[in-house]
Amino acid sequence: MIDREGYRPNVGIILCNEHNEVFWAKRVRQQAWQFPQGGIQAGETPEQAMYRELAEETGLLPRHVRILGRTRDWLRYDVPSQWLRRDWRSHYRGQKQIWFLLRMLGNDSDVSLATTEQPEFDDWRWNTYWIPMESVVEFKRTVYQTALEELASFLELSRRD
Length: 161
Description:
The chain is of the alpha+beta class. Helix content is 16%, strand content 30%. The chain has helices spanning 46-58, 141-152, and strands at 7-16, 22-27, 33-34, 37-39, 65-70, 75-78, 94-104, 121-127. A hairpin with a 5-residue loop joins β2 and β3 (33-34). It starts with 6 loop residues before the first strand and ends in a 9-residue tail after the last helix. The model has no long low-confidence stretch (mean pLDDT 92).
């Protein structure tokens, strides 16, 4: 499902613990760390997609989290052409995302990265809320920064916390 402008609807998830540290996951067989995220399927609301992606990527269920907030508008990023499959290059630009900020209510032991046949992540850790942007793949940095800044108010965090 790609919109007229070439963006695929997607959700991003910033999951934090009681210390306001964020859940950071490592992509399978890569040294790439990121927040959980995934596409919105036809007929799904962003919230429904968020819960589905959360369960698929982390094993966490709605009872394990509480929604603290979400971004007001779509945040977009373009995927560099060298990262695109050839057959997508003419009509796909990137992703538009609604970001959710969640509070973990469960325990670390509730996390399971192996809930699907092909897990996306093979490791995870808690990290400070203001993650160094150099840790994020370059083309997603602005979206990550914007989402973190907009959602920080729900945690009453300032940029220096």
